[in-house]
Description:
heterodimer; A: mainly alpha; MetI-like fold; 0% strand; B: mainly alpha
Amino acid sequence: MKRNLISKRAIRTLALNVVVWLFALAxxxxxxxxxTVSILPYRExxxxxxxxxxDLNSLTLNNYVEALRxxxxxxxxxxxxxxxxxxxxxxxxxxxxxxxxxxxxxxxFRLKALLFATILFIMMxxxxxxxxxxxxxxxxxxxxxxxxxxxxxxxxxxxxxVTFFLRNYFKFIPKSLVEAARVDGASExxxxxxxxxxxSIPALIAALIMQFTxxxxxxxxxxxxxxxxxxxxxxxxxxxxxxxxxxxxxxxTAGSIIxxxxxxxxxxxxxxxxxxxxxxxxxxx
Amino acid sequence: MRLAKHxxxxxxxxxxxxxxxxxxxxxxxxxxxxxFYDKNSGLLNLNNYREVLLSTNPLNMIIARSFSYIxxxxxxxxxxxxxxxxxPIVTFLGLIIAYLLKYHVRGGTIIKAMxxxxxxxxxxxxxxxxxxxxxxxxxxxxxxxxxxGVESLSKTWVARPQTALLAxxxxxxxxxxxxxxxxFSAAMETIPRSHIEAARVFGASTWRIFYSVxxxxxxxxxxxxxxxxxxxxxxxxxxxxxxTGGGPGGSTSVLALVMYNYFARGLDYYxxxxxxxxxxxxxxxxxxxxxxxxxV
Lengths: 285, 296
């Protein structure tokens, strides 16, 4: 009797496991399709479809070479542009935001509540709210269609959430460390640099990676502020691979994979930081 | 030399807030001003808002004048339909999956990592993948329906007004589910295992434990998921721009895209500013909610 009950339960558990795993595999089927189509000649995909074991002889990297090298698409240049824009647009705001986060956790000043509310406001406001005046300003200042212009905007925009993120981390560094350093006569800058920053390396790395990914993934600011072909970033270029009527899925899937490769690699290497960064939203609030 | 005490915060606050003031605060205030600026008369009035809200151009329509069963219904309604479907699906599915992965299924970390892919990749690429998923002859969904013999759903979903909006919304579930699963999984870590064990000892079933032990303790996480998903749905742009560009015939356009169309196609900066303000007003209640929860 009891044994029967156990085996019934075991079967149910097994069935549940199978169902959930099938669901998960179905969930990533589009990714599998994406990869398969990108490494096959598109003519073959049209005729035979992609949901099959591909014929090893027909595998090709032509779609990738075409997307990267053909001057019509030139993803290679835009990939480099994305690297430049995303790197600078993550280093600058993380430094600036670390300063702000220190002030919010360890110093008292007038308007503290108002400034913090401003930070939260900017974190959630739509990007569309800033672009019109900046576009007109940038045109007058010669910042339109330059890396400097978009990097300054991304940096200022990113400071808000990074400040919030780092403040949540700094809050859990024991106040006694700061107090002790103050008693020893250390200046606030010294405390920030010598005490807080070294203890916050994981948070700083997480902020850098998430901000980098955010900027890399951005399309809207790029569409508004970068116009010439040799300045455009990868998200812009990939979207343009899609023709108006005829879609070459071989090219488009290869471009998509090139464009998402960087965030995917960062995610695989720094998985823990990503998950923690996102989870920070849900827990303990 | 030591700085006067009240000057010290300035060293920390000046660099970040100078950048914010010039590149975020100033443009926000100027957008607000522009939205009231009537370029014909040079006066400040509500003309931009009126024209934007009443436009019937399919590219820019915010509120449709007449409704049929088939979109376009106007960008505002598309955003609302998006929310009405996306928020409950993402919340419930996320809860159930997080629960099953934690207590009943082996290899949960791998599945979570797979689901998470959707929020790591650029949303623009996400839009392209959605198009790919729903493309006739090569996409997963039309292939399934053609196999089942459902003629009308085996076509390219994003090319037909009947199915385009639904395709994007379902596709956005695919992109965004990893977010809710991650949040709920993290929150479930904080539920003591003893609570679950105790319920089990008293003979509670799997589903009973789910809805009367686990779910009530996840209330804060559920609120976060709902709020963040609402924000995501209201601000959605890249996914739509990359997959359909608002088409066919405006049947998938959303507010952020209308703002961009006024800006880039119409070169009408003042109306574009008015749409940005309308979008912000919709987001504002959520922002106020979060600011209240997060006081310094």
